[in-house]
Design goal:
The chain has 412 residues and is an all-alpha fold. It has two domains: 181 residues, MFS general substrate transporter like domains (Growth Hormone, Chain: A), CATH 1.20.1250; 188 residues, MFS general substrate transporter like domains (Growth Hormone, Chain: A, Up-down Bundle), CATH 1.20.1250. It contains 17 helices and two strands. Strands 1-2 form a two-stranded antiparallel sheet. It is globular.
Length: 412
C-alpha cells in the first residue's frame, strides 16, 4: 500500500537536554571563533606590512566562499548526516586558522582565511547545526530548538570575542590565532549527539520520497523559496553593514571608541534574548507574520535612529533593540523551509536560502564603504537600510505558511 513520508523525527539516542546543550555550545564556538577575525587586522597588518584592504579582501572572500559552498555542504549533511560534516568542518577550521597564523605572505593568508576558512565555515556553521536539530526533534519542538541554537551562536559572539582580545593583548596575535585553531577542535566532541544520518532503506520498504535534484527543482520553482531568499538577503545586508561599519559610524559622530565596541557587544547580548523569543513565537504564531513584523520593526528602528541626536545613550539603546531583531529571523525562516520543503533535504534548501544572506552580507559591507567614500557619510546607507527593511517586510506577505500535503512514496 502507498505510505506517506514519515514526518516524525528519528528516535533520539541522547536526552533532548544533552542534544540542545551540545548544539548550542557547538554553535557558540563556531560563531564566536569566526567573529574574531577583525581583532587581528591591526596587529597582523602592522607585523607583516600588509594593507588593511588586502586583509579585508581575504575576509570578504571568506563570506562569498561561505555563501557559495553552504548549499554543497548542506547537501552532504543531508546525505551522510550533520555530525560527520560538523566534525570535518571543525578540523578544517583548525587547519585554516593555523594556516592564517603561520602565513608570512598576503596571498597565503588570503588562501587560508578566504578559501579554506570559507569552506570550513559552511561545514561547521549554524545552518548545518540547525538542520540537524530540526531533523532530530519533533515539529512541536523545532522552533524553540532553533531559537536556542541561534541564541547559543550569539552568546558565543558575546563571550568568545573578548576572550580572544584578551589573548591577543596578553600573548600576542600569533599565539591567540593558534589558540583559536585549538579551540575549533572542541566542536568535534560537541557534534557527537547530532546523529541525524538517514537510516538505510530496508528491502521492501517505502522508496525515498524525493531525490536531492527533485527537492531543489521543487524549491527553485516555488515563489515562497525566492521570497525567503531575498528576505534573508536583506537580513544579511543589515547584519554585515552594522557589524562592519557601526563602530566607524559611532566614531564619525565624535563619540568614544568604547561606545562603538559596546554597541557591537550589546547587539550580541540582546540577540540571545531576541533569538529565544523568536523561537518561542515561531512555534505559536504564523512564521510569515513574525518575519513581516521583524523586518518592519528594523525599518522603524533605523528610521527613528536616523532622526535622533547621536549620543552614547541613543547609540546603546539602538544597539540593544537592534539586538532583539538581529538574528531573530533565523527560527521562522528555518521553520518555513521545513514546513514548505520538508526535512529530508533541509540543510541543502536552507543552505541556498543562506546563500542569499551571505550575498546580502557582502553587499552590506562593501556598499557601506562605497557610500562612505563617495558621500563622506553613512546617511545614504542608513536610508537604503530602511528601504530594504520595507522591501523584506512586503516580500514575506505572499509566503505560504500553511500545511503542505506530504509526498507519497510507493512501496517497492
Amino acid at each position: 500500500m502507498p505510505t506517506s513520508a514519515a514526518s516524525a523525527a528519528p528516535s533520539l539516542r541522547v536526552s533532548v537536554g544533552v542534544l540542545l546543550a551540545c548544539a548550542m555550545l557547538a554553535a557558540a564556538l563556531g560563531m564566536g571563533l569566526r567573529q574574531t577575525s577583525g581583532l587581528f587586522l591591526a596587529p597582523m597588518t602592522a607585523a607583516h606590512a600588509w594593507t588593511a584592504s588586502g586583509f579585508a579582501f581575504a575576509i570578504a572572500l571568506q563570506v562569498l566562499v561561505n555563501g557559495i559552498t553552504q548549499p554543497l555542504c548542506g547537501q552532504v549533511a543531508d546525505r551522510i548526516g550533520g555530525r560527520k560534516v560538523l566534525m570535518a568542518g571543525a578540523a578544517l577550521q583548525a587547519v585554516a586558522v593555523a594556516g592564517m597564523a603561520l602565513s608570512s605572505s598576503l596571498p597565503a593568508f588570503t588562501f587560508f582565511a578566504g578559501i579554506v576558512m570559507g569552506v570550513a565555515v559552511s561545514a561547521a556553521g549554524m545552518p548545518v547545526v540547525m538542520a540537524s536539530l530540526t531533523r532530530l526533534l519533533p515539529e512541536a519542538m523545532r522552533s524553540r530548538a532553533t531559537g536556542l541554537g541561534t541564541a547559543g551562536s550569539s552568546f558565543g559572539q558575546f563571550l568568545v570575542v573578548p576572550l580572544v582580545a584578551f589573548g591577543i593583548e596578553g600573548f600576542g596575535w600569533q599565539a591567540a590565532l593558534l589558540g583559536v585553531a585549538a579551540a575549533s577542535l572542541l566542536i568535534i566532541p560537541l557534534a557527537v549527539p547530532l546523529n541525524d544520518a538517514p537510516a538505510p532503506v530496508a528491502p521492501g520498504a517505502a522508496a525515498p520520497d524525493q531525490t536531492a535534484r527533485e527537492a531543489l527543482n521543487t524549491a527553485l520553482r516555488d515563489s515562497t523559496f525566492w521570497c525567503l531568499f531575498f528576505g534573508f538577503f536583506v537580513c544579511g545586508m543589515h547584519v554585515s553593514f552594522m557589524s562592519v561599519h557601526l563602530p566607524g559610524f559611532v566614531a564619525s559622530c565624535h563619540l568614544p571608541a568604547a561606545v562603538g565596541a559596546g554597541a557591537i557587544s550589546l547587539i550580541g547580548l540582546f540577540n540571545v534574548a531576541g533569538s529565544l523569543i523568536s523561537g518561542e513565537l515561531a512555534g505559536r504564531w504564523k512564521r510569515r507574520e513574525l518575519l513581516v513584523a521583524i523586518y518592519a520593526g528594523r525599518g522603524v528602528l533605523i528610521a527613528a535612529f536616523m532622526m535622533v541626536e547621536k549620543t552614547t545613550a541613543t547609540v546603546l539603546a539602538f544597539s540593544a533593540v537592534m539586538g532583539l531583531l538581529w538574528l531573530s529571523t533565523v527560527p521562522p525562516t528555518v521553520a518555513l523551509c521545513a514546513r514548505n520543503f520538508g526535512t529530508r533535504w533541509l540543510a541543502t534548501i536552507f543552505g541556498l536560502v543562506f546563500l542569499g544572506h551571505q550575498l546580502g552580507g557582502f553587499t552590506g559591507a562593501f556598499l557601506g564603504g562605497v557610500v562612505l567614500d563617495r558621500t563622506g557619510s553613512y546617511d545614504l546607507m542608513w536610508t537604503i537600510s530602511v528601504l530594504a527593511a520595507a522591501f523584506a517586510a512586503l516580500i514575506h506577505l505572499p509566503v505560504r505558511d500553511g500545511p503542505r500535503a506530504p509526498v507519497v512514496a510507493v512501496a517497492a
